[in-house]
Amino acid sequence: MNKEVNVDALFLGPKSENRVFYKEMMEYAITEHMHWRSGFHPEDSALVTPRAQHQPDFRDTLYRTEGILRDLSSRLKNKSVPWFSPRYLGHMNADTFMVSHLAYVMTMLYNQNNCAVEASPVTTDLELEAGEDLCRMFGFDVSKSWGHITSGGTVANYEGLWVARNLKSMPLAIARHEGAKDLVAGMTEHQLLNMKPTDVLDLTDELKKRGMFEEVRELSVRGAGVEPGKLGKLLVPRSKHYSWLKAMDLLGLGQENIVQLDVDGNYRTDVQKMRETTLRLMEEGTPILGMVSVVGTTEEGSVDAVHEVLKLREECEEKFGSSFFIHVDAAYGGYVRSMFLDENDQFMEYDALVATYRESEIVPEGVVWPKRDVYDAFKAMSEVDSITVDPHKVGYIQYSAGAITMKDKRIVDLISYHAAYVFEEAGEDSGDEHSVMLGSSIMEGSKAGAAAAAVWAAHRLVPLNITGYGHVIGRGIVTADWFASKLATAEPFVIQGRSFEVRPLMHPDFHMVNFTFKEIGNDSLADHNSLNQRIYELCSYASGRAYSKDFLTSSTSLSVEEYGDTPCAYTSLRGFTDEEWQKEGSVYILRAAIMTPFLRDEMRFSQYWSNLRDIFTQILTEIVDEENKKAMSHSAA
Length: 637
Ligand SMILES: *Cc1c(COP(=O)(O)O)cnc(C)c1O
Known about the structure:
6-stranded mixed β-sheet, 23 helices, lyase
C-alpha cells in the first residue's frame, strides 16, 4: 500500500470536487447512527407515533424547524468568509479535511462529553491518543508526556502558564509543610524559587510516597493564592499573542510581571537581548516564572530560536544555579514539526531532509526552506516543558481544536482536582479507564468528544510526518515562497499616471507573507497606512459581502507600542524617513497565511499571480477614483 497521502483526496475541494464521496460518507454517518438507535432494545416500541406525527402542531413545528435552518443557511451563505478558496489568503484558514468533518458529524450524533470517561467511553480514548500523536510529533517520550485537546491555543496557553505557576510555588509549599520540609532543608527562598522543573517534579514523587502530596499541594498557590510578584517574571517576546496578557490576568499573576523581549529584523526574539535581559534578572535575583518562545508568530509567522533558549537555561543553571520553565507557543507553527520527521517519526538530519524534499517533490529546488535556524528551533522543541499547538490552524481541522502537550506528565498532578494520580491509576495496562477524568485535570469541563474524534481521525489518515502532513503543509510553504518572490520583484502598478509598488515585509520563516503597497514618490507613512488599510477593506468582509470579493486577505498594524522600533527597518527600506516612523508610530500591513493546498503547481500559480495582478490593478483604480472624487468635491465646496 502506498503510504504517501494524496493531498487532493483530503479536501472537499474549492468546487466541491469530491462531493460524491463526501455525501456518501455523510449519509453513512447518519444512517449508521439511526441503526444504532433502532437496534438498542429492538423490543421497545416506537414512542413518537404516526398519529402524533399527524398533529397540526407537530407539522407546524417541523415547518418552523425548516424555516430556521433555511434562514441560517442563507445567512451563512451571504456573509461567511470563503476559506476554502485559494482567493482567500488571510488568517490561518483554508479548506479543512473531509475526514475530520465526517468524524465530527458522526461523533456529534452520539453527543459524547469528554469531561469524564463515563460520558465518553470512546472519545476520551481518542483524545488521549490524539494527544500522544502530538507528543510524538514534538519528540517527547510518549510514555512520560501528556497532551490533550483544548478549545484553542488561548486555553492551551492558560494551561501552560497554570502548570508553570503551580510548579514554581511548589518548593515554597514544601518548605512550609512540617512533614515535608526536610526535603528542601537548607535551601534559601531564592533557591526554592529557582529550581529546575524536573527537580521539583522529583520532589512531588517523594511527597506522593510519603502520602502528603495533596496536603502540600494545597499550600501552593492553588490553595494559598498568589502573592503579588512573588513567583517572578514571565518573559515573552513582543510578537506574543495577546492570550498571554489574558493568562497573566486570569491566573492572578499580573500583567505587570510580564517582561517583553525585543524582536530582531525577522520578528524573532532577539537572542542577544534575551540573554542580556535574562542574565540581568538572574543577577538581580528575580525569579523567572517562565520563558515563552513563539514558533510561528501570529502576525509574521516567525520562528523563535528555541535552541538558544535551551542553551541560555543551561547557562543559567551552571552560572547561577537557577532554572526556569520553558513554554513554546506553537499554536500556529506546531504541526510544521511533522515536516522534519521521516516515515518512522525520526527527526531527520538537515542534508537528508533536503534530499528527501527534493526526491518527493515536497520542496523543489530554488525554494528557501527551511532556513537553518528554523530547522534548529524545531529540533530543539523536544526539550521544552510544554507546547501549545492548534489542530484548527495548520492541522487543517475545523474548529474547535487546540491542544496542549507537556513533556513530563507528572506536572498534571499539580493542577489536578482528581485524587492523585490520574496516570498511575489509568496506566496503559491497568485497563481501568474509569479513573480517567479529563475534566478534573484540565482547564475546561464539559467538552465535545466530536472535536477529539475529528483530530484523531485526521491523525490516522494523515501521518504526522513527511509522508502525511509533510505533503499538506509543504504545499503552503512552497506557495508562500513563490508568492513572496513575486511580491519582491513585481513591477509597479501604474494607475492614471501614479505608480504603486508592492513589497513583502521579509522572506517568511514559515508561510505567513506580509506585504504593503506604496505609492512611489509619496513618502508620507500616514498616506501609506491609509492606502493599505483601504486595500484591506476592499479585500475583506469589512466593505460588504465577502462572497462578492475577488481576493480576500487579512491585515494588521505593527506599532511602536508592540514592537518598539523594529518595523522602522522596513519603513526605511521602503523609503520613509525615521521622522515619519517616529511621527506615525505604526505601519499597516496586509497579511496572508498561505495555507491553501491548491496552488502548488508552477503553471497554476503563475496563472493565479497574473490574475491577482489584475485584481490589485482594479482595487488600486477604485482607490484612485475615490481619491479623485474626494478631491473634486473638496474643490467644488
Ligand atoms: C492563534 C494563536 C493563539 C491563540 O489560539 P486560539 O486557537 O485562537 O485560541 C495563541 N498563540 C499563537 C502564537 C497563535 O497564533
